[in-house]
Fold these 4 entries.
Entry 1:
Amino acid sequence: MKVGIVGGGQIGTGWANLLTRFGHSVRLFDAEPGRCRGAANLLEAVAGTQVVIEAVTEDEHAKEGVIRAISAASGPEVILASSSSSLLPSRLQQMALYPERVLVLHPLHPVEQIPVIEVVPGERSSQEVVSQAVQFVTDLGKVPVVLRREVPGYVVNRLTAALWREALDLVLTGVIEPEELDRAASKGPCLGWAVQGPFLTYHLAAAGGIGPFLEHLGPAFGRIWVDLADWTTLSEEAVERLAKDVGKAYSGRPRDTWEAERDRGLQAVVRVLAEADGLGRARRR
Amino acid sequence: MKVGIVGGGQIGTGWANLLTRFGHSVRLFDAEPGRCRGAANLLEAVAGTQVVIEAVTEDEHAKEGVIRAISAASGPEVILASSSSSLLPSRLQQMALYPERVLVLHPLHPVEQIPVIEVVPGERSSQEVVSQAVQFVTDLGKVPVVLRREVPGYVVNRLTAALWREALDLVLTGVIEPEELDRAASKGPCLGWAVQGPFLTYHLAAAGGIGPFLEHLGPAFGRIWVDLADWTTLSEEAVERLAKDVGKAYSGRPRDTWEAERDRGLQAVVRVLAEADGLGRARRR
């Protein structure tokens, strides 16, 4: 399949690597010179493709210009997939000539490693384009998660934003250091959620299932819920402090060593969970 | 070491299994007849021990009675560790004869599988008891995470409560089904967090580190933060609906099959991450 990509940041180049690995013909354009690009201009990236992926910066204004340009350069048979991580696809559709062909395909960083790609239809996305997008994602060995309706941040980044705000707050209020919080999360609840997800985790955490769990621990959760961080912006001072503290915590090794460790870890975890799942399936037969 | 446990639910029996595996002599007492117990009464469970673990139901009133009884039955050399998952240790200390010997040791379910145990000192915990508790946890092959100050829900369950409220809300408002949300979380961001934790994850998600990441994605996070669920109690109707929907989603297999899959998955993930880390360390030498 011929796939055009507009935007050569981490997400755009991640898509390019993934698609190339699966034998697709990829043309990537980035307006910024010096960045990885395989097409001289947007028109060349888009011409003759079946799918165009928009992966420019997470800013509605920036995305608007690019979606208008892609839309003008491609026909009504092309899937126009935005890699936005938070914007409503119905809003992005307003910028397109063929709104029924527009939807969000939201991969996570690093695109090559994380299985989930969210499929978020807008109000005007056709059922056909949703089915084609699900097939496209599945054929890339990825796990499509289709939302029943659009909300800002979709599902993944709402879960992410909720945990992330609290993590930031716990560090900013001096309850814990960033590295210790990473340890608490990674060797703690995130392990369980990586294996089975929060609903199944809590369904198994009380003898009678999720109902008794919620009844029994409802008051305890309530005492925590009322106390959670509820701010909606980070001050410049907070960003500076976090940049300094987190940078210092992880300064012991070069960045590419951490990245290699992450990728090695992700590959190993994805592999053993697939094996454990396959083993379970074989036993259940 | 002789360890007494009061409370024979999932957490108390989890502690008992873990401690027995590490060669400790364990005596467990539960007031409810028919539950797993190794001691005829609380006094028998507590007498002659170096550590007593309180693991009764997550309710301040219930814990108060048990802490008073343990305290009356044990000396000033004993560590009195509460397995509370949310209550302030300073509050629990008020119920004890030797408040300096009281702190929270918060393991996660399943205790045998999840490495993290939070160590939460109260205002009056002695430095000695904190050091002893860290050593006790480390000797069990666990990962102690020590908080710098106490907050309701500590660190783990604040992160948990933040994500869990949003997960519940997304399902209750019809954005996604429980099983799909579990898939989005487990094959998505939780994988990355299980490997490196949220701070390191986002530190690596932008070329310049966490500072540029927060500056660049701050507005996008802000748009999501303002829109997140902020309720603090679940209605009875919501609990009923969730019990029904989650129960149905996972009714395809018996509970113990899911539990076996969870434990197999957790063991495999903990093992490969330790290997990946060991490999990284060997390479870095």
Entry 2:
Amino acid sequence: MTLTLYELAAKNIQVSFSPYCWKIRMALAHKNLTADFVPLRFNELDTINFSGQSKVPVLVHNENTVSDSWAIANYLEHTFSDSAPLFGASSTLALSKFVNHWADTILAPAIAGLVVTDIYANIAQCDREYFRESREKRFGKTLEAITQHRDVTVHEFRKSLAPLRTTLQSQPFLSGNAPAYADYSVFGHFMWARNISGFELLDKDDSICQWRDTLLDAFEAMARNAPRSPIIGES
Amino acid sequence: MTLTLYELAAKNIQVSFSPYCWKIRMALAHKNLTADFVPLRFNELDTINFSGQSKVPVLVHNENTVSDSWAIANYLEHTFSDSAPLFGASSTLALSKFVNHWADTILAPAIAGLVVTDIYANIAQCDREYFRESREKRFGKTLEAITQHRDVTVHEFRKSLAPLRTTLQSQPFLSGNAPAYADYSVFGHFMWARNISGFELLDKDDSICQWRDTLLDAFEAMARNAPRSPIIGES
């Protein structure tokens, strides 16, 4: 069995920061699977043209190529059905999809609005022109303008985490007493911020911190010990 | 077996519009249970002092009194475990909780910002002073100021439904191929708006409409045929 995962890399090529790649990293670990990781910069994404599209993560397993993190998670669940389930019952799968979409449509752009200048600072020089142009087009303003007031806008961001916070106040994980894919689908975005920015998304007292810490420490602290970019605004 | 559900009533006392009560109405129907409904105005909530708190819904079943819609749903699931499950596996329950919190912390205040003047117009005269005072305090502005630009702000609202919309584009219900409590926990808020306001929350083309229609038609069109308040701005 050979598993290869194509990922996005920061300026420091060891830094994996794409939230979607992190979802799959956690999913692989959950299933006790190892993969060869292939880090790519934005300007190297031609490499994955064989997948029929241009976005990481891409998983290659023997003769199979799978793109899109949700599809990859489902592929892993089916293919390695003897290992720990990522979804459980079919209704759990359906609900995990909602959590996953919340993470991708609400959480992701909100985090981007706080750390996009740090991403810019921490991606490879050769990626900067593309990154600035595409992100400024998406947001309709300069990168610097996006994050200019983040010490204020972070409060709105923290409010927007209410569904996550409230859920974690009554159970240790989104998936209940043990983490599963729904947790990873959110956690991936926190890893994105952690590994590309020194900006702290959460209040120290936020109950989300404990959940995040637990996942940072999971699988022998795989996530906590992962290489990070230089921290902007810290030493 | 006697089930009694204390609910919130509009000016037209037949109009049940509280989203939390609607969650339980749907849950009862899902389990093929019937209850005596007791409609209360805000100023009659003393009636449920026996429950040890002041919010509807309150369910009374034989010698048991249960308040809080989430607690009531769980009570029904346990007590009537032979009927159709509201949650399924334990991980499904855990994830349903997230959906429920999303509905309550994000969807609910957003809908309120669009229909609060219609609520005011459609609640009983005796409730208006309390309603205006408490809601204006919560929002920090007059009711009229809250909804003044709703033809514009509704576009932001529709964007905020992305997690729901995206999920429903790939499966008929949040819970998968059949509706369950996660669906009702969101649908309740749509019933709230429907029954107290003529303001249309969704674009006709929105894929959420189909899901809403299906639930309106479920259980012999129980929700669709429920009494509504006079429609503000329509005939």
Entry 3:
Amino acid sequence: MSKSAEFTKLHVALGERSYDIVIGAGLDSAGLLIAQHLKRKRTFIITDKNVAETQLETFVKRFENAGIEIAQKVVLSPGEETKNFTVVSALVETLLHQGLERSDVIIALGGGVVGDITGFAAAIALRGIAFIQIPTTLLAQVDSSVGGKTGIDTPYGKNTIGAFHQPQLVLIDTNVLDTLPLRELQAGYAEIVKYGAIKDAKFFAWLEANGKQLLSGLEGEKHEFRIEAVIRSCQIKADVVVADEREEGERALLNFGHTFGHALESETGFSNALIHGEGVSIGMAMAARFSAELGFAPKADAERLIAHLKACGLPVHPSDKGPKALDPVRILAHMKHDKKVKDGRITLILLRGIGSAFITREVEEDRLLAFLRNELK
Amino acid sequence: MSKSAEFTKLHVALGERSYDIVIGAGLDSAGLLIAQHLKRKRTFIITDKNVAETQLETFVKRFENAGIEIAQKVVLSPGEETKNFTVVSALVETLLHQGLERSDVIIALGGGVVGDITGFAAAIALRGIAFIQIPTTLLAQVDSSVGGKTGIDTPYGKNTIGAFHQPQLVLIDTNVLDTLPLRELQAGYAEIVKYGAIKDAKFFAWLEANGKQLLSGLEGEKHEFRIEAVIRSCQIKADVVVADEREEGERALLNFGHTFGHALESETGFSNALIHGEGVSIGMAMAARFSAELGFAPKADAERLIAHLKACGLPVHPSDKGPKALDPVRILAHMKHDKKVKDGRITLILLRGIGSAFITREVEEDRLLAFLRNELK
């Protein structure tokens, strides 16, 4: 980690796939930082309609000030439903039509959807070109923009098609969060809580003390806490990714809350009724309750996690958000379609306590189904 | 390289992406060789209609004898037009529907099209699973099955979407060539000649002596020559791939004849009028003539290459195959859409002589256009 007046720089050490994460409030030097990565001073920006309205012009100006030509701006529809084969093939063909070359770099300016689809397009265009992430949501800043997971959805699940394709640079300007709705901020905050819950009890205690101010505190205070939380989250994520880039082991810990959460998101059709971070929040609360019920974690730790999520305005129970009448058997079926299923067995990430999670394939389906029946009754 | 009574084994040393190429005539132990790579004894075979009629049952029996369950056989339409987004997305969704897991291995049983599309499906399904190549054409055996280039086509060119995704094993049974039409054999042979032309003058001389018997000689002789030529071709290809896996330098030599060839194939709509190996043959002859014209190679070397291609029944001039009235400007435009174009400059692979090729971006467009006008008049 290195700090300058304007930003903090973290390094993700992955050999020839290594890159920096640059974090600051108001990155006026974004153009210069990017220019260093361009072989010719020409790039393509992929964004969505919402970001185009609020952030695009600021960044285009920063790029142009650094002498970078924007060969094309591609504006996608916002929302998870954009992550499909039709959109990604049209995106790649648009880039090819504009004369994309192998040494070009494309830029994902947006939230998780824009980052996932742009990263995947970069992974497959001309058999792989470079891309830069400029995440514009808290969720993307602390999670999806780091680590190289890219992909699109199929009827068989989220990101069931994709690639591990690391970005060449991640540029995080926390000032972009100022225009983000509170609900989006809270959803991103769920992923921050996750890092504390699975890996870092001290960070979790820090969040308990500062989480609410981070979300909606006074001006100066709010920004300082956001930068600090983003730096610590990215550092934990980077450490995990370096240890296990392709999720053959430890990286699965980052899916804490996600197996339950994805199943709930599936049942709501990945709609606005339950956004990803909210699904993760409910999923973490469920995993915590299940961990306590199975005797892995002290009940008090599960309750502490749930209490903090609630205090920050996040849902903690399936009935708090999304569809009301959920069928436990359908939820179980969704969990069985998870990418981490192995020999037909569901992978669960459970807690031993705050700051300590583990991966297990040992939980019997009957036990899980009984838990789901109780949660959904 | 190691030899047993039944097969020769070459090793492609790419660190954690290393794999073997096993070459033999009648690989009855194919099932056992594959079983070693399966975590659960269950696999998926992707093939095309032609191969399904001639080869599929033999291999299915070999697998079943080794206790491998075939979860699904997917039979694609033969031909280059299968290499599109619609087919690859349907293929991946079929596999997911059958309960594909990350640790599964899928098998490409077929020619270049089956290998390219199956490899690409493996690269993107669940963010990357393993696959095994069992090439059933001479062209796939000596070229496309080795080296991890996978992909599909777009209106902007062949394989403009794809991934570098190495197979886990390449199994080459030269006996499958017995049912291959002579034209297909000759087309594959063009890629064999390419290895001699760019890298190995001794091998080229060996081909001059044995090429015709390899294609259509007496029974025993024919098989022996085929195995020898496949081994030497795969060895050269493996060496080049190990030196430059992602084609940042030397690997581009393997595209000798391909920049011209692809342009001609484009103009014939990648149809049966001009199959890939034929395009490469004409392309090599053109590159040889252009090399001599520019003074890079002795005229005698160009003539020697062209004479051998002709002697083996291969086309050596644009007018020998495909559409008659070709427009030089359109051919040039196709060449400018090549993946290897850099800063708008066309990459050409030219000869210094038999056994020695080089990469250049220095040839002026006007010079190339004048050459094309002369070739196509």
Entry 4:
Amino acid sequence: MRTIMSGVDGVKALLFDVFGTVVDWRSSVIREGQQLAQRQGWPADKVDWPQFADTWRREGYTQAMRRVARGEAPWVRVDVLHRQMLDRLIEQHGLQDLDEAARDSFNRVWHRLQPWPDSVPGLIRLKRRYVISPLSNGNVALLTNMAKHAGLPWDCILSAELFGAFKPDPAVYLKAADILGLQPQEVMMVAAHRGDLEASERCGLHTAYVRRPFEHGTEPRLEDVSPNQFDFQADSFEDLAIQLGL
Amino acid sequence: MRTIMSGVDGVKALLFDVFGTVVDWRSSVIREGQQLAQRQGWPADKVDWPQFADTWRREGYTQAMRRVARGEAPWVRVDVLHRQMLDRLIEQHGLQDLDEAARDSFNRVWHRLQPWPDSVPGLIRLKRRYVISPLSNGNVALLTNMAKHAGLPWDCILSAELFGAFKPDPAVYLKAADILGLQPQEVMMVAAHRGDLEASERCGLHTAYVRRPFEHGTEPRLEDVSPNQFDFQADSFEDLAIQLGL
């Protein structure tokens, strides 16, 4: 890890992974699932919402994305991937009484994810010096609606959608820097996930790892990151702002 | 013109033309030109800055864009078009003492254009109900830097650059609606220019004409728009917000 500001003097933009790094997707999906169950009058034990959320994320997003990366499936919006998996989960859990409007609305829970408590105040501080933008596999509409809902003060919305690929494809990081009129070394990727940061690093971007121990549940779990890996390691966006001298 | 809110109940996003509609490009370029002349120690009559600004805009942007639209030139970023024209103007005016750093910096005056006085307060009001975004031929970096500089509270940054075309190509309007996850009729284009609005209308978007009589100088000049043309006609973004019941 470098000392404060050294090595990142030329950085002009910070790009943020979103799911897990900026927003707490798991708690948000669980909460809305529980509210939906109540509205529908389902018995409390009909759905295990933490497990539902984890499966939706793992199979509807992570695994679907890998199939696209391997060329086994064409690129489609994350909204579509989420919906395909939601329809399967509805089948599996016997929730077929959900009508089209309710399915569409529940699928948009991913547009309404709640930020971690430090996300908005941290971003406001970081925005004073840097151009701040998401760089997510989430599509533009999802990221735009999420920002409006959660008050995320982005300077612009960059999505892998704009480049027709998904992270960790190098094209996503390189084209994001280019569209901002910047060299890769003028950009720093901020993420809670090692793979995203390692791919950024291979493209010449700077990197900041932010620990999000509760992304996957109330039992703290951290990525396997060594102490000197990446330009910065922080416990929150506010901690990162302090380390950057803001 | 429709009465308040009728016919636009389904509108979810407002897309804004930028040069002339949101920002006063002419005064901004003149002012920075005069400051540059002073720094360089040029005699006060060496450059007619209003004329310089007009030529830069007309030949470096409007005409260059038409060549791209006619297929006579490949699509390139507006930053590049502006720079090509700036280099020609530098030749014509005998300003070759400007070094590369000064040329690059002056070319970025288009990233630092000043908003009209009602732009920021009007956008803040309109943002309460609508997704607000630029839809400009200016490139993403230009629009992002401009927003940061001028405090434009966009929800996202949409540029013709994302679609590899320039307005008034229908693809730009249709793809902008699509990337927001909206139908054309859920989007309203806001512009000070008839051609932009007519092209939007042909794509099924709603339209709001905002009068900017001083875009081209201190002598007021308006577009040739008939009284009932477009869904709304307004004197400012704040006037538009009022007409929309905000």
